[in-house]
Amino acid sequence: MTGPLLEFRPEQAKPLLQEVMERSGQMLTACYQCRRCAAGCTVADETGFFTPNILIRTVILGDRETALSNPLVWKCVSCYTCGTRCPNDIQTARITETLKKMAKEAHIAPLQPKVAAFHDSFLESGLRWGRVNEMEFMGVYEMKNIIREARARNYEAIVDELKTQAKLGMAMFRLKRMHAGFMTTKGRKEIKALYRKTRKKPGVSPRVNP
Amino acid sequence: MEIAYYPGCSLKQSSALYDIQSRRIFSELGVELKEIEDWNCCGATSAGKVDDFLAVAMPARNIGIAEAAGYREIVIPCSACYSRTLVAQQRLEGDARLKAEINGAFAKKMNGGLKISSILEVLLGRIAAGALEPKLKRKFRRLKPVCYYGCMQTRFPFTVPVPDDVENPQGMETVLGALGVKAIDWSHKTFCCGASAAVNDPETSLNLMGKIMKDALLRGANCFVATCPMCQLNLDAHQDAFCRRSGIEERLPVFFITEVVGAAMGISPEALQVDRHFIDGTTLLKELEGDER
After folding, report:
1. What is the Cβ-side half-sphere exposure of residue B219, based on CA atoms within 13 angstroms?
2. Which of B92, B95, B59, B18 is nearest to B273 (CA)?
3. Are residue B113 and residue B172 in the same domain, yes or no?
4. Cross-strand bridge partners of residue B3
5. What is the residue-wise DSSP string for B255-275?
6. How far is the first Cα of chain B from the last one, in angstroms, to the nearest whole number?
7. Does B218 lie in the same domain as B160?
8. A79/B155 Cβ within 8 A
9. What is d(CA B242, CA B237) in angstroms, rounded to the nearest whole number?
10. Distance CA B147, CA B228 (A)
11. In chain A, what residues touch B45 (CB-CB under 8 Å)?
């Protein structure tokens, strides 16, 4: 098992580190590479051992390209094991969450486009209706996948995905675990109005200081 | 006794059985769950990955509704909703400006002081108060459960007061112990099932669930007990898929904690709607019905 080759980019190191530290609220410089996070990482087997400590090193070295596009950022399941075990209280899951947002802002195609489509669709659905209607949300999510795969002329992937989801959907329907009604929250207007207001502040993206 | 209740989207849809069971069990234990009015989605883990502001603002509105209605405590059975709401409250406590900004936009304001409880905390409170003991009708001697907590009951992205041990929680074991059931110790009780990865990255999720299943079988378990609707649905709905992938023959029912508590109180599996599981759990509960106290 060998680690990935990281590039040292002195000119990028400081601004990248600063941005990630500020937005994630994590003291990356406190990492002394003890690898407790790596030992506990739930998805280490899935990321080719691109473990949290390597991600932190990537950011510190200023390798922006690798930091915004690597298996851990897109495979991280936000189980928070790395963070609860870190002797220096670095919650790497919040770093992966930050890097996902930064990748989106930089228009970098996600390594796992379905992961990005899922979280976008979920939040959109919750905001649109006030509650997430599972069927509507899954419909929007699958449409995003279909459009993306169709653009890449990847028709086989579309058929496979629809087959899998239809099978699960039928089983859920049989067990009465599919909900027919449609839920809305009246107060969603309050949230939408607040959200619009925070986004309109000049020069401030809707982010919360940790 | 009345406490505020936030069911969340999943307990109103795919895990509606959990909603029905929770209301029933708590009513038997002398707690009326009062669903807060016009609640909204908490944003779940997705909000944290897409928009930090919404991750706080969405649960904040629900906290305000519960507080404005005069409740001192709210129970949130879904682990994701519980975690996000608790984290949002904690972040607002430390950020007066953000709290004022959010309060300014919502009709029902937050004052602070609402206790946000998981289903286990409320259950343990009722057990300590002696409300469970007189209700018990059965003692399941042949139930060999492993308690599955998943991630979000004890691990949080921000520093919050955690009600149980982070790595080796005991809340569910204590509840089962009060029923006379001895849970089996194992090492995957807080290992992640993949959560939404079951939909958007099945390869990862199926591998993770295969590991959970292998450990449960190795320890000799005959069922899982869970509190999180996402964990329950994942381990239940995808069990055939991850077992086939990992070469496992056996199948294990995945019970909600409310199902085991309810069954011990003598409520039939049908009334608890256990027949809405993917992996049959009714047979095991029926077999055990002969176990008298």
Report:
1. 22
2. B18
3. no
4. B33
5. EEHHHHHHHHTT--TTTTTGG
6. 28
7. yes
8. yes
9. 10
10. 11
11. 78, 119
Tell me which residue of A32, A14, A105, A27 sits closest to A68, measured CA to CA: A105
* Exposed/middle/buried for residue A174 (C-beta within 10 Å: 0-12, 13-18, 19+): exposed
- For Cα atoms A135, A131, A168, give the angle at the middle one, nearest 5 degrees: 25
Would you write out chain A's pLDDT as a tens digit for each of its 210 residues?
566 789 899 999 999 999 999 999 999 999 999 999 999 999 999 999 999 999 999 999 999 999 999 999 999 999 999 999 999 999 999 999 999 999 999 999 999 999 999 999 999 999 999 999 999 999 999 999 999 999 999 999 999 999 999 999 999 999 999 988 999 999 999 999 999 988 766 444 444 444
Cβ distance of A81 and B151 shorter than 8 Å: yes
* Same domain, residue pair B258 and B154: yes
Q: What is the ipTM metric for this complex?
A: 0.95
Give yes or no for a contact between A53 and A31, defined as CB atoms under 8 angstroms apart: yes
Tell me the chain B residues in contact with residue A138 when contact means C-beta distances shorter than 8 Å: 199
Q: Which of A122, A179, A198 best probes binding to B when mutated, by most B CB atoms within 10 angstroms?
A: A122
Q: Which of the listed residues B84, B119, B154 is the one where a domain comes to its end?
A: B119
HSE value, Cβ hemisphere, 13 Å, CA-based, for A192: 13
| Closest alpha carbon to A78 in B198, B207, B152 | B152
From CA A15, how far away is CA A67, in angstroms rounded? 13
- Substitution target in B152, B155, B208 with the highest count of A β-carbons within 10 Å is B155
B104 membership: H or E segment, kind and range? helix B96-105
Domains of chain A: 10-110 (1.10.1060), 113-198 (no CATH)
Query: Please, what's the b/e burial string for B87-112 (b: 16 or more CB within 10 A of its CB; e: otherwise)?
Result: bbbbbbeebeebbeebbebbebbbee
Q: Are B179 and B260 in contact (CB under 8 A)?
A: yes
Among B119, B152, B172, the domain-final residue is: B119
Question: In this structure, which amino acid lies at residue B33?
Answer: L
- A162 neighbors A155 (Cβ within 8 angstroms): no
> Which residues, at least 6 apart from B130, have a Cβ–Cβ distance to it below 8 Å?
none
How far, in Å, CA of B84 to CA of B13, rounded?
19
- Count of beta carbons in the 10 Å neighbourhood of residue B3: 19
Contact status of B51 with chain A (Cβ, < 8 Å):
yes
B143: Cα within 13 Å, side-chain hemisphere? 38
Residue A1, C-beta contacts closer than 8 angstroms, at least 6 positions apart: A49
pTM score, whole prediction? 0.95
- Check if B155 contacts A (Cβ < 8 Å): yes
